[in-house]
Amino acid sequence: MFNTKKLTIGKKTIEPPVYESVSRQNRFETLVKAYSNDLYRFAYWLCSNHSIADDLVQETFLRAWKALDKLEDEKKAKSWLITILRRENARRFERKRLDLVNIEDVVVEDKVNLSPDQSIETQQLHQAILNLDIDYREPLLLQTIGGYKTSEIAQLLKLNLNTVNTRLFRARDQLKRQLSKDRLPIHRITT
User: Fold this and answer.
1) Is the pTM of this model over 0.70?
2) Taking the domain 108-191, which CATH number applies?
3) Which CATH architecture has domain 1-98?
4) Per-residue pLDDT of the chain (191 residues; tens, 9 = 90+)
5) Burial environment of residue 47 by CB neighbours within 10 A (0 to 12, 13 to 18, 19 or more)
6) Where are the domains of the chain?
């Protein structure tokens, strides 16, 4: 017998009917459908490489599948998956010694048709974000890309709320200073 109720995981609602007792497989498929795009965006911002971001998301879902029974509160699924993804990204550095790359040579691909000035501004903004220390970059990306509240970021990163607020303030301040040196209009990072 089908259940006509919507299945809600976190803030996302999946509408197809599911069985009364949701099987492990169905729970997992629902998680993948609900959060794969969000995880990919965050992974891409962490590594700036499409294939590595794909690998990180795959590894995240593999670990999530193995530990799915540990997820007790479905409302915390997104935070749980983001934590797994962050740990997978850290493992990437533990497993392999990466080749050093000059950060000035890295260009983030922009697929939107922009004017040359807008394209340069976007590249400068991406570069400035990449130049931030990871302690400042992570909370900023979680807030701007992931849409997390500061309290959720504090919980995800296992930090004090005041520490998160301070890091977000400092990240924006560093971006403003760096971009004002490059003469990029500051309104782009505050809006």
Assistant:
1) no
2) 1.10.10.10
3) Orthogonal Bundle (1.10)
4) 334 455 555 565 555 444 345 688 888 888 889 899 999 999 999 888 999 999 999 999 999 989 888 887 788 888 899 999 998 888 887 766 656 666 666 666 655 566 666 667 778 888 888 888 888 989 998 888 888 889 999 998 899 999 999 999 999 999 888 888 766 455 555 44
5) middle
6) 1-98, 108-191
